[in-house]
């Protein structure tokens, strides 16, 4: 049994480490108001202000099932790389999951950068608010319609009249599922649909047999393991942008190009791969505004969107 003194020293070191991590998170959180004001100044004023920071908003959506402090810790090194390339410190903002609140912030250009898994939000910021795509994750995202192994359902055309469990109403994955059903002449509005906040809860509910069909994101933990664990996928959406990074129109084309090159370079270095692994990505690829515009065109507008714009 180790001496009590060594145990106490290790305990103190562990506590100190945790306190330092929390302190860093608290400092960045407390700096948010000042940083938001700094970014909303014009470019000349920010250049004259040595304390100016870029705001990097991160929204991992319901597929991640992570709390804000965890998201902050995993992306801290990534934000430092971004800040070094752009030449200013970067403050991480763990964005709210409410899509309309996030869109309102993007309309005001509150964030220099948005790194978001719900891909309809950055797509709308590109279409409506002048944001530009920087990169997106190499691995595409898909919406999956899942059933249990012993389900009689074999295709999406057989979903009509069944109980369906989806992510939050009007979330990105919900909208993709809505478009898939529409393409198969099934109206989501006429079906027995229930929603849950994250994919883990949807997977558990499906395993427990509470619903006939579930809809999840292919890159979530459930999405990656559903078939491996014996479940079946009866429909897959087209390949779609996954975790895109977009930049405010206040960032120059030269700065965006420089940042794009630096992030693509992470794919080919050992240190870069380590950073990517920490944020749960396989690598980055180039993308274009047209990819997001085509995606939105396929999704189609929702009546709720028209009322709230």
Chart the SSEs and their pairings:
Layout: H1 4-30, H2 32-40, H3 43-48, E1 54-59, H4 61-64, H5 68-86, E2 90-94, H6 99-107, E3 113-116, H7 120-129, E4 132-137, E5 143-147, E6 163-166, H8 172-183, E7 192-195, H9 199-207, E8 213-217, H10 221-225, E9 232-236, E10 245-247, H11 253-265, H12 270-278, E11 284-285, H13 289-299, H14 303-308
Parallel strand pairs: 1-2, 1-3, 6-7, 6-8
Antiparallel strand pairs: 3-10, 4-10, 4-11, 5-8, 5-9
Helix pairs in contact: 5-11, 6-7, 7-13
CATH topology of the largest domain: D-Maltodextrin-Binding Protein, domain 2
Could you estimate the helical fraction of the residues in percent?
40-55%
Mean pLDDT reading: 84
Task: Give the topology string: H per helix, E per strand.
Answer: HHHEHHEHEHEEEHEHEHEEHHEHH
Low-confidence stretches: 4-8, 10-48, 305-309
**CATH superfamily assignment of the largest domain?**
Periplasmic binding protein-like II
Task: Report the major sheet.
Answer: 6 strands, mixed
Number of DSSP strand runs: 11
Identify the CATH class of the largest domain.
Alpha Beta
> How do the strands of the widest beta sheet line up side by side?
2-1-3-10-4-11
Tell me the fraction of residues in β-strands, as a range: 15-25%
Structural class given helices, strands, pairing?
A: alpha/beta
The appropriate CATH architecture of the largest domain is 3-Layer(aba) Sandwich
Total domain units: 2
Total helix count? Answer: 14
The CA-CA distance between the termini, in Å, is 65 Å
The radius of gyration is 21 Å
Shape: globular
């Amino acid at each position: 049994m180790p001496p009590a003194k060594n145990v106490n020293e290790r305990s103190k070191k562990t506590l100190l480490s945790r306190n330092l991590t929390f302190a860093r998170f608290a400092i960045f959180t407390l700096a948010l108001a000042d940083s938001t004001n700094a970014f909303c100044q014009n470019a000349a004023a920010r250049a004259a202000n040595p304390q100016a920071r870029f705001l990097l908003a991160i929204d991992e959506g319901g597929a991640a099932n992570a709390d804000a402090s965890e998201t902050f810790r995993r992306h801290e090194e990534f934000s430092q790389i971004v800040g070094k390339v752009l030449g200013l410190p970067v403050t991480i903002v763990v964005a709210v999951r409410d899509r309309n609140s996030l869109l309102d912030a993007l309309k005001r250009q509150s964030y220099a950068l948005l790194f978001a898994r719900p891909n309809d939000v950055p797509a709308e910021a590109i279409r409506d608010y002048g944001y530009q795509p920087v990169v997106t994750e190499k691995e595409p995202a898909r919406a999956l319609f899942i059933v249990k192994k012993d389900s009689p359902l074999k295709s999406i055309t057989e979903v009509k009249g069944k109980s369906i469990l989806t992510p939050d109403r009007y979330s990105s994955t919900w909208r993709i599922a809505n478009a898939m059903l529409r393409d198969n002449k099934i109206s989501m509005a006429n079906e027995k649909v229930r929603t849950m906040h994250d994919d883990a809860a949807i997977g558990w509910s499906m395993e427990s047999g509470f619903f006939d069909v579930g809809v999840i994101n292919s890159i979530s933990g459930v999405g990656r393991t559903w078939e491996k664990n014996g479940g079946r996928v009866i429909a897959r959406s087209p390949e779609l942008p996954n975790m895109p990074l977009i930049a405010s129109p206040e960032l120059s084309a030269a700065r965006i190009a420089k940042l794009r090159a630096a992030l693509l370079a992470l794919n080919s270095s050992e240190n870069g791969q380590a950073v990517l692994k920490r944020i749960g990505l396989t690598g980055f690829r180039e993308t274009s505004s047209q990819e997001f515009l085509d995606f939105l065109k396929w999704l189609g507008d929702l009546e709720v969107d028209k009322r709230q714009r």
